[in-house]
Amino acid sequence: MKKILRNRTVLGIVSIVLSLIICFGLTPLFNQAISEKISIIRVSENIQKGEQITSKMVETVEIGGYNLPDSVLKQEENIVGKYALTELHAGDYVLNSKVSDEPLANYEYLTDFNGKERAISVSIKSFATGLSGKLEPGDIVTVLASDFGDLRETVSPDELQYVEVLAVTAGTGLDTDEYEINQESIEKDKELPSTVTLKGSVEQAKLLAEMEAKGKIHVVFVYRGSKENVKKFLEAQDEILTEISEESQEVQENSNGIQGKTDVKDEAESEVKIYE
Description:
This protein is of the alpha+beta class and 276 residues long. Helix content is 37%, strand content 22%. The chain has four helices and ten strands; from the N terminus they run H-E-E-E-E-E-E-E-E-H-E-H-E-H.
């Protein structure tokens, strides 16, 4: 009985000591960390994507430093003079990933072509054929055409199963992601997409042009997500294009072979007639 009481007494004392340590040791340190202030740079007025940041657009403020991301910029000289990589709103913190030393190129998606690829725009002839205005740059789509050719059939070429969307453009000439949706005046004038710009090979571009001229193009959504997965879809399409090219070459070689044999036969018959 005494041993049990002694153990309970020891446990009680230990609990009291731990409580005192937490109350008078750890808690003040935690509160101090929470209440500690740090100076950072905050956006004071809206900044548009690609706009150069001036000192009038930002301000220095003190906020609680607890749980603040390391990428938040704290010095004005690290921001002023740089260019916004995305739209920034008044009150936003400025992250290192949101500014650039170099000005943004207009329609940057056209700057990384290697000479083998092509960009081509096709018409969105109705609200439905363009996925109801929900397409975004970077999407993977399948392209098909209805009412195609004299037979007015629906075709879905293997060459266009996985195609990357570069841009979706309204009748104003602006890409849809260029609209400032936070401004009511511009939102009222915003138009629905009228064309979609796609990235592909020379063969794909020719096929798209033919489908545009002879039918009604429909864009079918396939994937939106990480660049790694987008790359997998494009690699799968490249494999399909390679197979089609090899099959076409084989057919051409066989055709040339048959034609060659026919020519030899004709020459032989001609020689026989001569000798006769």
